[in-house]
């Protein structure tokens, strides 16, 4: 794959791909060649599709990893080999969204009870009740809170928002 590899590197440099992306794409192309023991230039759409199927079924790679292989092979065949028909019908694998783990009320209480400092407990309770991120909680200042209105302004990089943790407990 020497000359083909050099052409692929040159094409990736012309497209201004990051060095890490270039390394990943070259690895994917090399593994395709190793799998069939032939140059990728000799392979067609049936072999490329079978290789991706092999990655999913036999190697049990995650969809995001198979997506990298798909992108690498798409680049190889479209840009370097000028054979876009080989990868035209390839679809990126659907990613399964991760569902966040939500704590039950008793688990939240146990967690908050473990905090020894009243300052830490107050901050953690405010974060939980208002749905603040750690970075947002770190930006809170005493002058932004109003005890009578039971709300405070939280300035983020994008915008400022007013949150009211009391309304969560009062309902």
Helical region count?
Answer: 8
Shape: elongated
User: Can you name the CATH architecture of the largest domain?
Assistant: Orthogonal Bundle
Number of domain units:
2
Strand composition percent: 5-15%
Mean pLDDT: 85
pLDDT < 50 runs, ≥5 residues: 167-171
Strand order of the largest sheet: 1-2-3
CATH topology-level fold name of the largest domain: DNA polymerase, domain 1
Structural class, judged by helices and strands?
mainly alpha
Q: Which secondary structure elements does this structure contain, and how are they paired or packed?
A:
Blueprint: H1 2-14, H2 19-36, H3 45-57, H4 63-80, H5 105-113, H6 118-130, H7 134-138, E1 145-146, E2 151-155, E3 160-163, H8 166-170
Antiparallel strand pairs: 1-2, 2-3
Helix pairs in contact: 2-4, 3-4
Describe the model.
The longest helix is centred in the N-terminal third of the chain and has 18 residues, at 19-36. With 171 residues, the protein is mainly alpha-helical. The protein is built from eight helices and three strands. Strands 1-2-3 form a three-stranded antiparallel sheet, with no helix packed on it. The chain folds into two domains: 2-86, Tyrosine recombinase, N-terminal domain (DNA polymerase, domain 1), CATH 1.10.150; 105-170, no CATH class. Helix 2 packs across helix 4 (63-80) and helix 3 (45-57) packs antiparallel against helix 4 (63-80). Strand 2 (151-155) and strand 3 form a beta hairpin. 55% of the residues lie in helices and 6% in strands. The model is unreliable at 167-171 (pLDDT under 50). The N and C termini lie far apart (67 Å). The protein is elongated.
